[in-house]
Design the sequence.
């Protein structure tokens, strides 16, 4: 059995009731859906392919931000970009959406790298939040999260309760949920938001990495999701510090289950370049193989 075939056997289709649907600044929305099978099987990096409206059969891939396997719900964050997501935003609480998932190769954590650096940008923040949720009760790991956005963050930031080595003066804005999980976080933007680092996520990551000892840096692995240029910059940063790095790619998808080959990217393998499908061969890849 091929890996893709095995993966498709763990994908479920559910009629998911909307439990909550909240609007945030910058045309961003958080969506909570009752989908117990998907919630029970999703892992950090998984995504769902959902129908946006009964009148619009074409699905949209959206990364999973959080799950509660006991209560059976999944949380998604999305931004209105076009007609499809605009229709999705109109769905009220109580409406039902057809949901397919969890889809995708997830992130993998390694105990010999107990300092995960989680870097999320824009709508690439959800997989990093899912990573933090998965790591928060495992004392093996000491994660640090950096989130960047060029539109207002979809949450009210607050001053961090954690002292983080290397942070520039005044960079104190943090994501409250992550801080509640006892994970330090910092926010960055070029829009001048209070308490945020004025620059890119990689700039702030460099401050943090430079403040670590050589021994501590050897314990770091980078995990990232966001716009393509940001991921390229993250990959360059990882190479500069000789760190392993996993990235989740965001590509336009049609079927999302490996049948149409519409989301292929070139990946370097041991036998040379190969075309891989982001939906089932990814979306998580070793950064060095795609950049």
Sequence:
């Amino acid at each position: 059995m091929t890996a893709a075939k095995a993966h498709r056997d763990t994908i479920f289709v559910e009629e998911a009731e909307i439990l909550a649907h909240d609007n945030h600044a910058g045309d961003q929305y958080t969506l909570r859906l009752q989908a117990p099978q998907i919630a029970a099987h999703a892992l950090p990096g998984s995504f769902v392919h959902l129908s946006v409206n009964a009148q619009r059969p074409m699905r949209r891939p959206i990364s999973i931000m959080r799950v509660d396997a006991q209560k059976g719900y999944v949380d998604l964050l999305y931004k209105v970009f076009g007609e499809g997501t605009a229709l999705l935003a109109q769905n009220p609480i109580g409406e039902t959406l057809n949901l397919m998932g969890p889809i995708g190769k997830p992130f993998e954590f390694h105990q010999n790298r107990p300092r995960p650096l989680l870097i999320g940008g824009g709508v690439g923040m959800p997989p990093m939040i899912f990573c933090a949720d998965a790591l928060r009760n495992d004392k093996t790991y000491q994660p640090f999260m950096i989130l960047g956005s060029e539109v207002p963050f979809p949450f009210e930031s607050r001053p961090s309760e954690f002292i983080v080595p290397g942070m520039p003066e005044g960079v104190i804005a943090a994501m409250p949920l992550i801080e509640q999980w006892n994970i330090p976080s910092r926010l960055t933007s070029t829009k001048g938001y209070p308490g945020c680092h004025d620059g890119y996520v990689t700039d702030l990551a460099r401050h943090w990495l430079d403040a670590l000892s050589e021994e501590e840096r050897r314990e770091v692995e980078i995990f990232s999701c966001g716009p393509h240029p940001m991921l390229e910059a993250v990959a360059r940063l990882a190479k500069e510090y000789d760190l392993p790095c996993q990235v989740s790619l965001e590509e336009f998808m049609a079927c999302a289950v490996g049948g149409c080959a519409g989301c292929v990217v070139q990946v370097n393998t041991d036998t040379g370049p190969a075309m891989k499908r982001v939906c089932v061969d990814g979306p998580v890849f070793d950064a060095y193989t795609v950049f």
